[in-house]
Write a structure and sequence with these properties.
Blueprint: H1 15-23, H2 38-43, H3 80-91, E1 124-132, E2 140-141, E3 144-145, H4 146-157, E4 166-172, H5 183-187, E5 190-198, H6 201-209, H7 219-230, E6 238-246, H8 256-263, E7 270-277, H9 281-293, E8 295-301, H10 304-314, H11 317-366, H12 374-417
Parallel strand pairs: 1-4, 1-6, 6-7, 7-8
Antiparallel strand pairs: 2-3, 4-5
Helix pairs in contact: 1-3, 3-11, 4-6, 4-10, 7-8, 8-9, 11-12
Length: 420
C-alpha cells in the first residue's frame, strides 16, 4: 500500500515558545528583509529607533535649610519577552491546518491471466520462434495444412510481442525430403531465416510464409543451433525465450530434452516453451520433457482454435505490456498527487507565517505600549519568520525528493511485477 509523504508542519506548534526561550538567552540577530510579504515592509520599518516620552522634572519645595533635590522618577520598565509572548498568543498561526490528505492508491491494475515467464523480466527481451517444417507439417489439417495454420497463428502472435523485443525465426526440416535417401541432408537442415532484430511484422510474415514442409525432424539440432543465436545476449541483462512448435518426434537421432537443458543453463539463460500440435502420446512425452528441461511450459494444441488460444490468450505478451503500463501510470498519478498536495500545504504554511509576522508588526506599529520594545520585537518577529520559512523550505524539498525516489522505486517494482 502506498504511503504518501505529506507536508505536515506540526513541528511549529511549539515553535513560538522555543523561539522565545532562545531569544532570552542569545543576542537577537540583525533583522533581514521579509522576502515573501510586501505588507510587512509597508507596516513597519525594522530600522526605526523607538521613541521614549520625555519626563517632566519634579518641582522643588523651598525650605529653611538647603536640601538636595530629589532624583527624577524613572520611566517604568517594559518586559519585552512578555510582550512577544502576548503577540504570539494573539496572532500566532496553527500551521497544522495546512496539512493535506493521503493520496492513497488511485488505480487498480488487474493481473493478466497469461503465462510467459516465471522470472522477473530484465531490461532486454529476446524471443525466438523455432518452427517444425518437416514433411508431416504439410499433411492436411482442417481444410488446410498444419504448417499453414501455424503460420497464420504466428503471424498474429508476433504482433503481441513487446515493441522493444528482439525477434527471430529458426526453422528445421525444411530441406531434402521424407525419403530415406535424403535423411542426411534433411537432418542437417536447420536455418535462422529471420535473425534477431526489432520486429518488422511485414518482413516476418513474408519470411515465415515462404517456408515449405518437406523433410525429417531434427528438433535437437535446431535447439543446439539456437545456442549460437542467443550467445550474443548476456543473461544478466537479457530475458531470452524460445517458442518451439512441432507435430512429431525427433527423427534425426538428436536429443531435444538435453539440448533444451543446455539452452536453459545459467550461462545462456533461455526459457524453452514447447507447443505440441496435434501430437500422439509418445510425442507428447518427448515434448513435455523438452519443456521441463528448458525451464518452460508445455502447451498441447489439438486443433487450430487451440493453437490460436495458446499463442494469443495464454501466452499473452500484450496483456503484460498493458499491465506494466497501468502500474507505471498508477505510480505517476500518486506521485503527481503527492507533489500537488505537498505544494499546496507548503504554500499555505509559508503564507501563514508571513501573515502572522505582518499582523504582529502591524500591532507594534499601532500600539504605543510597544514603543520601548519596538525594535527588539520587530527583529524577533523577522528572525522568527526567516527561520520558519527556511525550515519549511527544507522540509518541502526533502518531501519532494522522497516522492521522486518513491516514484522511481514504484516504476522499478512495476518492471518486476509485470512478469507474465
Amino acid at each position: 500500500m502506498h504511503q504518501s509523504k505529506l507536508f505536515k508542519p506540526a513541528s511549529f506548534l511549539l515553535f513560538g515558545f522555543v523561539f522565545l526561550v532562545a531569544c532570552t538567552q542569545t543576542t537577537v540577530s540583525t533583522p533581514t528583509p521579509i522576502p515573501t510579504t510586501d505588507e510587512i515592509a509597508e507596516v513597519a520599518d525594522p530600522t526605526t529607533e523607538p521613541t521614549i516620552a520625555a519626563t517632566e522634572p519634579p518641582a522643588l519645595t523651598p525650605t529653611t535649610a538647603p536640601t538636595a533635590s530629589p532624583e527624577p522618577t524613572a520611566t517604568a520598565q517594559v518586559d519585552c519577552n512578555q510582550q512577544f509572548t502576548e503577540l504570539l498568543a494573539g496572532y500566532g498561526r496553527n500551521l497544522t491546518e495546512c496539512s493535506g490528505a493521503d493520496a492513497g492508491t488511485m488505480l487498480q491494475c488487474p493481473l493478466p491471466q497469461s503465462s510467459v515467464s516465471s522470472q522477473p523480466l530484465k531490461e532486454n527481451i529476446n524471443i525466438q520462434i523455432i518452427l517444425d517444417a518437416s514433411g508431416s507439417m504439410g499433411d492436411p489439417f482442417g481444410g488446410s495444412t498444419r504448417l499453414a495454420v501455424a503460420q497464420a497463428v504466428l503471424a498474429d502472435f508476433v504482433d503481441t510481442l513487446p515493441a522493444d523485443a528482439q525477434v527471430s525465426l529458426r526453422v528445421y526440416g525444411h530441406t531434402g525430403s521424407r525419403d530415406e535417401v535424403d535423411k542426411a541432408v534433411s537432418c542437417q537442415g536447420t536455418e535462422l531465416i529471420y535473425p534477431f532484430q526489432p520486429l518488422d511484422a511485414g518482413g516476418f510474415v513474408d519470411t515465415i510464409n515462404a517456408v515449405a514442409p518437406v523433410g525429417w525432424t531434427p528438433t535437437g539440432a535446431a535447439l543446439l543451433a539456437a545456442l549460437d543465436d542467443f550467445s550474443q545476449f548476456d543473461p544478466a541483462t537479457n530475458s531470452n525465450f524460445v517458442y518451439l512448435i512441432s507435430d512429431g518426434l525427433e527423427t534425426c537421432d538428436g536429443d531435444p530434452a538435453a539440448a533444451a537443458a543446455q539452452l536453459n543453463s545459467a550461462n545462456v539463460g533461455v526459457t524453452v516453451n514447447v507447443v505440441g500440435f496435434a501430437v500422439d502420446a509418445e510425442t507428447t512425452q518427448e515434448l513435455q520433457e523438452t519443456a521441463v528441461n528448458g525451464g518452460g511450459t508445455y502447451f498441447p494444441a489439438n486443433d487450430a482454435e487451440a493453437l490460436r488460444e495458446i499463442f494469443i490468450e495464454q501466452i499473452d505478451w500484450a496483456a503484460w505490456g498493458e499491465y506494466r503500463a497501468c502500474l507505471v501510470d498508477t505510480a505517476a498519478a500518486i506521485y503527481s498527487e503527492d507533489v500537488n498536495q505537498n505544494s499546496e500545504a507548503f504554500s499555505c504554511s509559508m503564507q501563514m507565517v508571513s501573515d502572522e509576522s505582518a499582523d504582529m508588526l502591524a500591532a507594534i506599529a499601532a500600539g504605543s505600549e510597544y514603543a520601548q520594545c519596538s525594535q527588539e520585537l520587530t527583529e524577533r518577529i523577522i528572525n522568527r519568520q526567516n527561520e520558519m520559512h527556511g525550515t519549511l523550505t527544507r522540509e518541502f524539498d526533502a518531501l519532494l525528493n522522497a516522492a521522486e525516489t518513491e516514484f522511481d522505486e514504484q516504476v522499478d517494482e512495476a518492471e518486476e511485477e509485470s512478469v507474465p
